[in-house]
Amino acid sequence: MYWNLLAQALCWSIIAAQTGVISPLAQECSPDLPRVVCINKYASVMPYHFFRNISNGTFTPSFPSTSVPSDPSFALVDDADFLVFDRERGLEVLGTSPSYRYVFEVSEAVHEAPVYIASQNKLYFSQLAPPPGFLPQLVIDLNQDPPALSEYLSDPPVYAPNGGTFHNGLIYWGASGGNNSIGGMEQRVGIRTLDPTTNKTTTLLNNYFGYYFNTIDDLFVHPNGDVWFTDPRT
Description:
This protein is mostly beta strands. The chain has helices at 2-16, 75-78, 87-94, and strands at residues 26-30, 33-39, 82-84, 111-117, 122-127, 137-141, 148-152, 161-167, 170-175, 179-182, 185-187, 190-195, 200-205, 219-221, 227-229.
């Protein structure tokens, strides 16, 4: 017992010696919910030395696998059923007896750009390659019990939405791929909108003064209509 307390005291001393460190990084959100763990301030400043392995191409280590020996509280993360990053809203959503269950089997492709349409009670999201040139998006119909998953093809189709958001009745997609013959027509990386009530898409942007974009990823629409987006190089 003595040595455990001493080790913990040394850990807290190391943490205290660093500036800006979040302490503790994790804690139980409520005594009544022992497997619901709150992450304080997104664990944005961890005490050294922390480490998380990178993906090897077939397996990506999860956040709970991060090693943070200087903060014993992080051990709670690995045993948690739910991680909460906003305590007030998170506990409101989870309620008093949260649980989760397996719902759908999807391909091993990357899935991106989730957008919930409240008026339809449907969740739209994309499936990126593989397979190359896959055009449909996916939609979960939450009006059915159990919810139903189906493919969704807009008009005209949009290839590889990698980021999505909702603004003024429209889904805004950051379309991250394209070439000369996607679905029998040319498409380039750009920003497109979908009207979910009519299934029609519109291209807002597909070049920067004649240059193709790299791969538009995440985006956000300001209330005034300005669109902010990222264009990382792949």
